[in-house]
Amino acid sequence: MKPVIEQIPYFADNIAWLVRCENSALVVDPGNAEAVSSFIDREGITLSGILVTHHHSDHIGGLDKMINRTGAPVYGPNDRRLPLVNHHVHDGETIDAGAFRFEVISVPGHTSTHVAYYFTDCETIFTGDVLFAGGCGRVFEGSPAEMLASLKRIAELPPKTLVCCGHDYTRSNLEFAMTVDRNNLLLAQRLASLDKRERFMPETIAVELATNPFLRCGDEGIRASIKMSTGDSDEDVFARLRSLKNSY
Ligand SMILES: [Zn+2]
Predict the structure, then answer these.
(1) pTM for this entry
(2) How many angstroms does the Cα of residue 83 sit away from the middle of ligand 1?
(3) Domains of the chain
């Protein structure tokens, strides 16, 4: 049976994700135990596992309470800042957890041990704070080149793959994108469509490739708008875009 994806918003803009098969589910990045618990209690869901993408507290703050309540195993990177992880995951590994199967993709840059989880059954990737809808995370523990390589690995997945990220920064990301890619009609349409949505709308890799400037470092229009030329490397263009977004 194909799992379904559900979102649990918490704090101002965080999103925890459920991968669900009937009454059993995995949760990704339960940063707030109350929000996740009330959702799974209401739906009568048993947790088969907890997945964490990286160590930042807004993504793992609910871990101890979730473990105490459910006893579910915790999958995550091998990092001393993640002491509650009891199943270490590694790049390229395929993991079976109850009714679920997922692949681990190492995506350093935002943090040095950040991972993404790719579910082929439901054609979805959970990208934490690396690839956002219309943008990407800040580069805290790696180089711009490392972050760009991580983004490119995600972007190489099948185009119909759905991108489920850890924050809803979509409006700010797309408004910034318009400043560097103003002739992009699909981008303008994507930004306009935000007025009609009631909650976060994950898009496909194909849509991200067409509208997310951090995946479009080779685009000549974007390069011209930030005063870079065809001779500059993608890494240089990415670093310039990231620095412009930081001060946007
Ligand atoms: Zn983070």
Answers:
(1) 0.98
(2) 17
(3) 4-246 (3.60.15.10)
